[in-house]
Amino acid sequence: MPKPAHRRITIVDVARHAQVSTTAVSKVLRNAYGASPAMRAKVQQAIDELGYRPSAAARGLRGQTYTIGVMIPELRNLFFADILDGITAQLGDTAYQVLLAPGCNGEKEEARVIEAMIDRSMDGLVLIAPVSSRTRLNNVARSVPTVVVGRHGSSTAYDTVTDDDVAGAALVVEHLAGLGHRRIAHIEHHETDPVRLLEMPNAQRANGYRDAMREHGLADQIDIASTSYTHQGGYLGAKQLLSRDQRPTAIFAGADVVALGALEAISEAGLSVPGDVSVVGYDNSALAAFGPISLTSVDQDGRQMGANAARLLVDRIADRDRRTAHVKLSPTLVVRRTTAGPARAAAPRPAPDPAATRTPTDG
Amino acid sequence: MPKPAHRRITIVDVARHAQVSTTAVSKVLRNAYGASPAMRAKVQQAIDELGYRPSAAARGLRGQTYTIGVMIPELRNLFFADILDGITAQLGDTAYQVLLAPGCNGEKEEARVIEAMIDRSMDGLVLIAPVSSRTRLNNVARSVPTVVVGRHGSSTAYDTVTDDDVAGAALVVEHLAGLGHRRIAHIEHHETDPVRLLEMPNAQRANGYRDAMREHGLADQIDIASTSYTHQGGYLGAKQLLSRDQRPTAIFAGADVVALGALEAISEAGLSVPGDVSVVGYDNSALAAFGPISLTSVDQDGRQMGANAARLLVDRIADRDRRTAHVKLSPTLVVRRTTAGPARAAAPRPAPDPAATRTPTDG
Predict the structure, then answer these.
(1) What angle, rounded to 10 degrees, do the helices at B37-50 and B11-18 form?
(2) B285 touches chain A (CB under 8 A)
(3) Do the domain assignments include residue A2?
(4) How far is A115 from chain B (nearest CA, A)?
(5) Which residues contact B307 (CB under 8 A, 6 or more apart)?
(6) Does an H or E element contain A69, and which?
(7) What pLDDT was estimated at residue A144?
(8) Residue B346, domain member (yes or no)
(9) B92 interfacial to chain A (CB closer than 8 Å)
């Protein structure tokens, strides 16, 4: 146990120091009726001199803790950092402190993290791209104000903020078809659960891709490598696609990190981007904008998503019975140097490799 | 205020449900002497049926909250994600929950975030690369068990975990000098505060660079661009260095993100890497390992740093009066494709640019 020297200052210390009763201190702290200006001054002086701060734990027992918990599934996904920036900017100079619960991989870990945040009496939760069941999310939202970001749905228990993933995929296909591509392939995150196939952004991007291919009369060209939204998933997905009898002239990767893996596989196969294969990512992360990569990518405004989530959450904390809102933002396409018309395949171009000393491997 | 339907289950509900006194429930919860096995079974059944969990806020008033706060200055620095992985892995299946306080830029914001964590009765803090004054850190550590990561020092109030930054810089100079380079320049993070010049990793890297240059008989070649540890800082620093009458044949960037900015400036200047200029980073982040970048970089084992920090913190929570420990880990150099001998400058090489259609700009 801590020794007295380490003990935190309490209301009792303040009362003793100010030579007033604890009730009087409590009144001043609560800004309650019946505390005279002289009493306020006396107590405030003691508070300042001792460096007393009312404990959030103690406040938690009486009401709010002014803590917003944000569950972030993967710290290495820079898009999530954008969302977080939007949340903290929106909360700005409010009394709310944002605390992140990191590292969720799968439903079990996610349940543990959510419980931990509820257990610490957080006033509200922002869950980014949760994988829990819909029932579970509804239960969480009934026990604490909750906003879900990056997962579609129409819950009456929690608000949601999403980007229109179907529209984003359509932008990609439209861009590539407009450049003259027909063999446009897609790398998706493998998904089988029926609810997730409805609600997860990755599933909606794959659906949007299929729909848009049909709209452009390219139904017979639909070709999907089903791996995962990771660098490795992109690498393996692109290897699959490049080994087809007729390889695609353009690859739409479902996320920037997937596109990076695809770029690596294409480079290893001795092919150039965009000369031999055009590549499009999704998220417009800092990596996509990074000069030597310069990836064409779909931009979801992460900051705006985060700001919307924070606004909805603060409103929900103030009124738990208001109707749930479902905000869907429109994506845009940022065209950079990894896409060009398929005709350019005729002209040999340098591989996207700073020191291209590798020989083509079995691609 | 929440309606009763949203109210969390309390010890009173458990007592009522089990038809025992709240004192009895409390005894069972505290595992105290005097609770019969029958009583334990009855209370446990009520706890299970109601889904009761003792509130962390309530626990906080009596003792531990089992919450570790980690202050992380920048979510976009992937090295910090490695440190965090090490912390969470080390805490593994303990009762401790890690919560991150994100986004500190400068002393004032840092003070606010640290206060917020103390205010929420966290059991211990891990401060990653804090910029606060030494006095301030000592005061924090006296009020809550604290481990400082990535900042040198020999405080008797808090434990530290660092990587040997002087040794890391020496590895870089040794590697480049060994390849035959003499004009080896450095991009540092600008620093003037005397304490920070002693304790911050960036300052120690710059010192290590100077020392190693002297040791290799290259004192007259010491050339430092003083910008910042950001992508932009690397870009501007490299532009400065490339505009020298005699431009460097090798650039040691103080961080990977700085090296990326430098690569961009070198590419814009129409120069190749490593043909015209070798580039070395620091951190061995995922970006450095990424194939098309393939950056030679100093590896600090972030996971091991995090694991050490978590171990020290748990020990400190258990015994606040133990001697402080200062763990310093040894870095290694990971050689990739951005470094080569200066002789190779004779042979023209492709620029590190996937679609190098840009013309050289004023470099």
Answers:
(1) 120
(2) no
(3) no
(4) 9
(5) B86, B87, B89, B90
(6) strand A67-72
(7) 95
(8) no
(9) no
Inter-chain touch A100–B99, beta carbons under 8 Å: yes
Per-residue model confidence as pLDDT tens digits over B163-176: 999 999 999 999 99
At B350, list the tokens: 């492709």
Query: pLDDT at residue B29 above 90?
Result: no
Within this chain, do residues B129 and B23 fall inside the same structural domain, yes or no? no
B336 falls within a domain? no
pTM comes to: 0.74
List, for residues A190-209, the tens digit of each pLDDT value: 999 888 899 999 999 999 99
* Residue A92 in contact with partner chain B when CB distance is under 8 A: no
Q: Does B349 touch chain A (CB under 8 A)?
A: yes
Strand partners, B296: B280
* ipTM here: 0.71
Of the candidates A277, A292, A273, which has an alpha carbon nearest to the alpha carbon of residue A244? A277
CATH number of the domain where residue A290 is located: 3.40.50.2300
B100 contacts on A by Cβ (under 8 Å):
99-102
- Note whether B200 and B221 are same-domain residues: yes
Closest to B6 (Cβ–Cβ): which among A85, A143, A293? A143
Structure tokens at A123: 């006033």
* Interchain pair B65, A57: CB under 8 A: yes
The pLDDT score that the predictor gives to residue A49 is: 79
**pLDDT of A238-274, one tens digit each?**
999 999 999 999 999 999 999 999 999 999 999 999 9
CB contact under 8 A, B121 and A57: yes
- The verdict on residue A348 lying in a domain is no
B274 touches chain A (CB under 8 A): yes
Do residues B292 and B170 both lie within one domain? Answer: yes
Q: pLDDT tier at A346 (50, 70, 90 boundaries)? A: very low
**Of B99, B293, B322, which to mutate for an interface test with A (greatest number of A Cβ within 10 Å)?**
B99
Using an 8 Å CB-CB cutoff, list chain A residues near B67: 120
Q: Write phi, then psi, for B98 (nearest 5 degrees).
A: -90, 130
Which residues in chain A touch residue B289, judged by CB atoms under 8 angstroms apart?
A: none
Q: Kindly state the DSSP code that residue A7 receives in the 8-state scheme.
A: P
| Domain co-membership, B173 together with B186 | yes
Q: Is the bond into B37 cis (omega within 30 degrees of 0)?
A: no
Residue B53: closest CA among chain A residues belongs to which residue? A119
User: Which of B97, B122, B361 best tests the A interface by mutation, with the highest count of A CBs <10 A?
Assistant: B97
For residues B70-76, average pLDDT: 88
Number of structural domains (chain A) is 3
pLDDT(A2) > 60: no
In tens, the pLDDT along B289-322 reads 888 899 999 999 999 999 999 999 999 998 999 9
Residue A332 has a CB neighbour count (10 Å cut-off) of 12
For residue range A116-143, what is the model confidence (pLDDT) as tens digits? Answer: 899 888 999 999 999 999 999 999 999 9
Rounded to the nearest 10 degrees, the angle between the axes of helix B11-18 and helix B22-30 is 110
Percent of chain B with pLDDT over 70: 87
Q: Which of residues 167-226 of B touch A (CB under 8 A)?
A: none
